[in-house]
Amino acid sequence: MNKQSGTIRSKGEETVPVNRREQILESAVVVFAEHGYYRATTAQVAEKVGISQPYIFKLFKNKEELFIAALERAFERILRTFSGLQAPADQLLAEAIQLYEQLMETHPNEIILQVQAIGIRDEAIRQSMQAGILEVTRLMESKFSAAGFAHPEVEVSTFMANGMLCNIALTLGMPELKPKHL
Amino acid sequence: MNKQSGTIRSKGEETVPVNRREQILESAVVVFAEHGYYRATTAQVAEKVGISQPYIFKLFKNKEELFIAALERAFERILRTFSGLQAPADQLLAEAIQLYEQLMETHPNEIILQVQAIGIRDEAIRQSMQAGILEVTRLMESKFSAAGFAHPEVEVSTFMANGMLCNIALTLGMPELKPKHL
DNA sequence: TATTAGTGATTGATCACTAACTAAATAATA
DNA sequence: TATTATTTAGTTAGTGATCAATCACTAATA
């Protein structure tokens, strides 16, 4: 029943287990980030994984679901990143910023994917995007609440705004656009 | 030499002058905003204008240039909107916000177009986008400078961040995401 | 007569997605 | 243990739809 497991022969003689679904998502993030949802082709994703193009449709119903799965993966990483966040009120924002900057360095393509998702006029993708943003917002509000902020929504809103500007600066290749603070 | 001028017969017997290029751009903004760059078709734009699809290519070299022309038009409106901005330091931000909110109400599709442009992986479109954002930023910095702000870049950066969050809230249909201030 | 404004028909390329198949691993059975 | 059946993991080949872009043309105007 485990559709995800399989084996490949590596250069040596050992056999290493591999999860095709994960591999495909990994490649999909890169290809989608590089070319955008509509320009990216399932053939490009398949080539990057080293499988045939039709095989993608054995593991994902269609291109839309592949994209959504990749997008959800990206949101899960953000949530995981902030899940452990905890600091006194006067340090919380700085810590949050630091965590996010690290994430942007290690997984820029997942950020770019999300920026692209904003503009995709596809109902299912939009819903997934709405849900993701809402979850991140809720999580951050809980963190700012826990730190004792009186108006966590205001703090979080500012944090989200600056985060978005960061994302856009990254996506457009405009480092000078990154938020400036004193 | 005036490629833009022509006439159409309206329902009455009079003849009204018309600028096809402008008409096409007007429709293009709507169609692109509704379907996104790649899903929007030149046929949809043509239908909205009431001309044949090939005629678009008499006035625009290709789809990319049509989109860029529409995008530039959107940026020009923003620049025009803020061009007259002038207020004492303690009112400037509020005035700027009011102007932008008005713009978002009167021309939401131009805002959505810009949000979409962020995610389009096309070199020419990206360059146009970079130039547009830079121009808006420069203009706002001059306004905040004129009002006597000590660190206009910081103020403008915050303004841009909140503006972007506004744009995203509009594009995703998430009014609850709009910036919160106290 | 030349230019402007416009159309109908077509095409070449691209791509998501399907169908029909195979090879290998694993489990069941004699 | 050898043999057969079944599932898993994957492939090759192809199709139907979509669309930007071109070409060759016409009708009206100046």
TrEMBL record, chains A, B:
SUPFAM superfamilies in UniProt: Homeodomain-like
For this protein, the record's Pfam families field holds:
TetR_N
Q: Which stretches hold the DNA-binding feature?
A: 41-60
Q: Which UniProt keywords apply?
A: DNA-binding, Transcription, Transcription regulation
- Domain HTH tetR-type: start-end pairs: 18-78
Query: Known InterPro entries for this protein?
Result: Homeodomain-like_sf (IPR009057), HTH-type_TetR-like_transc_reg (IPR050109), HTH_TetR (IPR001647)
Name of the molecule in the record: TetR family transcriptional regulator
Give the source lineage, highest ranks first: Bacteria, Bacillati, Bacillota, Bacilli, Bacillales
